[in-house]
Amino acid sequence: MPKIAIATYDKLPDLTFNDQLLIPIFRENGYTVSPEIWDNSEVDWSSFDIVLIRSTWDYYLKPVEFKNWITQFINSKTRLINSAEMVLKNSHKFYLKELANKGVSIIPTIFSSEKIELEKLKMWEKIVIKPAVSAGSHETEIFEVNMLTQEVLDNKTRTGDWLVQPFLEEIKDAGEISMLFFGGNFSHAIQKVPKSGDFRVQKQFGAQYLKFEPSTMLLSIAKNIVEIAGKESVYARIDGVITQNGFLLMEVEMIEPDLFFEHTLDGPNRFVEAVLKEL
Description:
Strand order of the largest sheet: 11-10-9-12-13
CATH topology of the largest domain: D-amino Acid Aminotransferase, Chain A, domain 1
Strand content: 25-35%
Number of helices: 9
């Protein structure tokens, strides 16, 4: 029987509840399935037909190791989903600059690999600074520009690549919208609302996840982003915020996004169908 490895990390050796839902569906389609920890050196990845990236949620803490792990699947007989090339590109948030150049509306962003001058940030009252390689709001902070000093800014962005964006007040009230696409087709969407007084939209910070029904126009915008950012993606999650200027993209998640199957009955089946269509 063909073999599938579902890649996870050492804190979730048995996968998340959502990812566990995929196993019986793959087995019904004739596949042997096992969860495998992505940085376990004892795993023989070449013994699998498919390696499906799911909860590799510590990859940003081990960027060199993760890059090396992903690179081994380039030109390999083992199929990585999403593709190695797509994952490598998506792991660094400077891909947003390319999307903006192709006409996608993103949050206004300063992309920096060098010293950031405080004077250039004074066009905004409040800013968000986030690393280009990150997940789950890791090292993401909000600053009041009039309270920020060059020294604090330098210490924050001393090494690595960074994104600086204006803080959007809409996030405090309406949160973010996440739209899931499997095989390029829309599956379902949720609204992630932060707890009062916070801006982070992850559950570990008290956020609420609500089912969301996007408008026809919003779906068209999101599908266009998928076409531009990852036309060959098996799965993609479009994260953004609805503002008075329309929908602004925050991220395109094509590595290990939470799929929010608790908000859709048929989501796991649609996901597996998209995976198997690629084979």
